[in-house]
Specification:
heterotrimer, A mainly alpha (about 220), B mainly alpha (about 230), C alpha/beta (about 270), A: about 220 residues, mainly alpha, MetI-like fold, C: about 270 residues, alpha/beta, Rossmann fold, 6-stranded mixed sheet, 4-stranded antiparallel sheet, globular, MetI-like (chain A), transmembrane helix (chain A), Ectoine_EhuC (chain A), Ectoine/hydroxyectoine ABC transporter permease subunit EhuC (chain A), membrane (chain A)
Chain lengths: ~220, ~230, ~270
Amino acid sequence: MEWTSYLPPLLQGAWVTVQLTVYSTILGAVLAFAFGIGKLSNNWLIKGVSIGYIEIFRGTSLLVQLFWLYFALPIAGQAIGIDLRLPPVVAGVLALGLNIGAYGAEVVRGAIQAVPKDQYEAGRALNFTPRQAMWRIALPQAVPEMMPTFGNLAVQNLKDTALVSLISLGDLAFRAENIRNFTQDSTTVYTLVLFMYFGMALVLTAFMKIAERSVGRWKTAGR
Amino acid sequence: MLFGIHWDTSSDLAFAASILPILLRGMVITIEATVLGFFIALVLGLVLAVLKAAPTRIVSWPALVVTEFVRDTPLLVQLFFLYYVLPEYGIVLPAFLTGALALGVQYSAYTSEVYRAGLEAVNRGQHEAARALNLTTTRTFTHIVLPQAVPRVIPALGNYLVSIMKDVPVLSVVTVLEMLNVAKIIGDRTFNYMIPLSMVGGLYLILTILASAGVRYLDLKLPKIGIPLK
Amino acid sequence: MSEPIIKFDKVVKRFGSVTVLNELDFSVSPGEKVTIIGPSGSGKSTVLRILMTLESINDGVVWVDGEPLWHEERGGKLQAASEKHMHRMREKLGMVFQQFNLFPHMTVRRNLTEAPIRVLKLSKKEARERADRLLEMVGLQDQADKYPHQLSGGQQQRVGIARACAMRPRIMLFDEPTSALDPELVGEVLNVIRNLAEEHDLTMLLVTHEMQFARQISDRVCFFDRGRICEEGPPSELFSEPKEARTKEFLRAVVDPDSAKGEKQASAEG
């Protein structure tokens, strides 16, 4: 069989992979900021929940989390009479976003803590509220510091999307396995698929570099 | 029944207690795959790092591309590639070994970068001082550069050991009976996924906390007096 | 006049498109103390780094103690030197670095004994005795078991000097040895170098911005500009009545009391 005939189904799968990556990265970014800032909160409840979230999702395996959401959660729902059966897409985006968000939260926390103390002192001297000091002074300086690591996490997330094929979501890895099953032409299929992932990663990296540059102007001159 | 051990579904507690020994058998496989995969990553990463540091571009450039390629493609697909493609070239490995190899290949891209950063962090003045004192290249490497590079490298490598452990469940797709696969099989047969999967989550938490503590302990114990780590 | 111990013969050094040394001719007699001064980027440090074989040359020949440093005579012709040849040549030279470059993972004493044991093949006992004598010379006998980061910058540089001396070189190269130091620590390092200059017949080549010190210890001062020696002579002449316009300009700039360098120098003298 001609290898070009594999392309249409693989491209369809790649499109699913792209969508999964985009949605879960956005979800992950939101969670990262929420819990990263939450971990620095003075409110013990917010701080405790943030630490719990970060530790659980960083401390266990992504595939365990995915299976738990997809296989175990519906059963828990059944027990309390709520339908918690998630469509594979939702389970996938949720698991990927929750997982990458926990790693991102640590990055956010680290970057905020790396903002020099005298910046906060300057903020206090100008009578900013703590919230203003966080949003107006600390975060704009911290974001450029997070960007390189965020770039790595986004690529990590793209690679992790392959795991959703295991809950029968039709992404690139899933289509590859199907074609291999059908044609037994494993070398061609998997070589093709590896290069497609590589290409997507390069594009994603380029996007993250652009984003990095566009927030670079926030960087303080002193660092 | 799995590994010759029966489960007891009379109550949730009895069920959990009866499957714990089965999950622990899976955990042993998880740990074995982690250790073997890490070892392969350490060796392969060193090879890549040396190639990348080669003075000629004919050698260093392909090594850079390979690193980038391996780092940018999913472990799952690499695993399938090795699992299905190697036999076509007459290399038939047990699933466990193929899995450990895939882990090692994927993480060699990361460890090679760790080695490189560690060596580059030893500043040029150190090489120049060694040269001015007429120390040989070998002696400079083993007694001046390495002792300063190793303490910087160990914590990063340790973190990748923990990452490898969390990636082991991927090997379940090629029938390796690691912890998650065992839990999934129990779930498939009893229609109770909640308990085994949650237990695996808990066991993973314990494993990663212990491993991270181990890495931190090792980091504290390392002789790094006077070595600037930043 | 005796045969020069260092001789640069039309030496050219380029970094990319920038020519740092432009057909430099330069020689030093045995036992002579020579100070090199000049604006930054004039190639002062490069002269020392070429002598220590840290930087290669693009053209010309460097002679050290009657032998070419970067070349070997094979079949009557000068060819690029082997590592073995340079290893032998380096035994004649020692260097003190601007950033000290002490080995941070070794104690002060081990910094001083590592090379004598490994390179000169001294016994541990001999190396230790030599190290302790040198530490006494630089006034750090009680710091032998400390690590470099536990010492002040001035102390670290004194260890750097002792470490270079431990190899018993015939030529000592000092590459801006006090430039990385706080002003109040400059004096102690200069004193050690001064004692070294007065008590030994070492050949010394010093790159520095400490003009007063250069005047005190050198037999000859060379003013470098744009990769060549612009003017040279005994310090009394060069500092008091420089002939070249560029020398005058440079000296006026560095002794200007309003500039930062002037302050640094004043406190070092005090």
